[in-house]
Structure to design on (343 residues):
């Protein structure tokens, strides 16, 4: 009897573990009508991250073409941030170390203090964190464009706030984006367990066809 | 067995002098303050952040400059700091919203917890340092 129960328990555990969940697609959905083989069908158009133009720590342009067909993680920070950024960066190092060398994965960290965080400063920051500068890039650009991208592209908060330590308020989210520029998940980048969850979800996304 | 354990605990407690108990309370308070004021950058375990934020764990700088710690926390630090052979250059902000007494408790905790061998600074030394920070 004990053996039978043990077998059932083990089987249930195996079934539960082998079940791959699929990731949601975040954002608004728009129904669109189109002709397929002479018939009118209704399809769904998903929200995508808008086109963008930023410069990385090596003054190289990073645009929607850079991320085309690649899975990437976006986050927001500023160099002098005394609160959540160092914790987020510690967690991002974990993600970088796991996927280092994977040419289909990018990490894009956007500064929300572009006046202070010059390209030279971002270069130093990047090097000190151990980034290769190609897979994990530190982006800057027009302040409004960065804030707009945070809000509309990645559903994140980023804005000046003189009452906050460091002078800015921003979310600590790691935003997971698929190869079609669709946001597939937002994870708390200050929480080790959530970042582990993010890495599990990246592996799920990689298997998606 | 349980009675013996309780008896031993009582012996242990009563064997501490008043000053030792005060010091233990200060270190415990310092641990809480460290978590809310220092751990974001230096991390809970004092490991720092890559080559950006220096570690406290087994930091040679800390062992060599223990007496400077109170003013370093109070005023912050700007410029290059060499720790365990690495030159760090991230500005450390001055402590805001905490009292000298709380800074003293953080110092006691940090010097107890992170050097290879715990370092003890007398309260009077810390007070004197804090009153004469440049």
């Amino acid at each position: 009897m004990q053996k039978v129960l043990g077998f059932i328990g083990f089987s249930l555990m195996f079934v539960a573990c082998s079940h791959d969940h699929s990731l949601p697609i975040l954002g608004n959905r728009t129904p669109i009508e189109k002709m397929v083989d002479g018939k009118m069908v209704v399809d769904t158009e998903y929200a995508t991250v808008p086109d963008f133009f930023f410069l990385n720590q090596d003054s190289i342009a990073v645009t929607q073409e850079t991320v085309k067909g690649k899975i990437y993680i976006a986050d927001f920070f500023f160099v002098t941030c005394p609160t959540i950024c160092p914790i987020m960066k510690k967690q991002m190092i974990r993600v970088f170390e796991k996927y280092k060398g994977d040419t289909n994965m990018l990490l894009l960290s956007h500064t929300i203090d572009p006046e202070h965080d010059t390209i030279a400063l971002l270069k130093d920051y990047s090097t000190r964190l151990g980034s290769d500068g190609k897979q994990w890039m530190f982006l800057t650009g027009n302040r409004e464009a960065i804030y707009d991208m945070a809000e509309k592209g990645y559903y994140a908060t980023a804005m000046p706030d003189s009452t906050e330590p460091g002078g800015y308020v921003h979310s600590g989210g790691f935003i997971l984006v698929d190869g079609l520029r669709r946001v597939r998940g937002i994870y708390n980048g200050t929480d080790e367990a959530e970042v582990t969850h993010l890495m599990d979800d990246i592996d799920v996304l990689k298997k998606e066809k | 067995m349980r009675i013996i354990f309780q008896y031993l605990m009582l012996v242990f407690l009563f064997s501490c002098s008043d000053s030792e108990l005060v010091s233990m309370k200060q270190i415990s308070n310092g641990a809480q303050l460290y978590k809310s004021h220092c751990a974001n950058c230096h991390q809970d375990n004092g490991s720092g952040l890559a080559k950006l934020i220096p570690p406290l764990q087994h930091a040679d700088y800390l062992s060599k400059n223990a007496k400077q710690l109170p003013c370093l926390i109070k005023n912050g630090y700007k410029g290059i700091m060499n720790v365990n052979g690495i030159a760090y250059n991230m500005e450390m902000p001055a402590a805001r919203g905490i009292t000298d007494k709380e800074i003293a408790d953080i110092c006691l905790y940090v010097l107890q917890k992170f050097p290879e061998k715990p370092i003890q600074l007398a309260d009077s030394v810390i007070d004197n340092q804090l009153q004469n920070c440049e």
The first helix of chain B runs from residue 2 to 15. Chain B touches chain A at residues 40-41, 43, 49-53, 89, 91, 93, 96 (CB under 8 Å). Chain B has a mean pLDDT of 89. The beta strands of chain B are 81-83, 86-88.
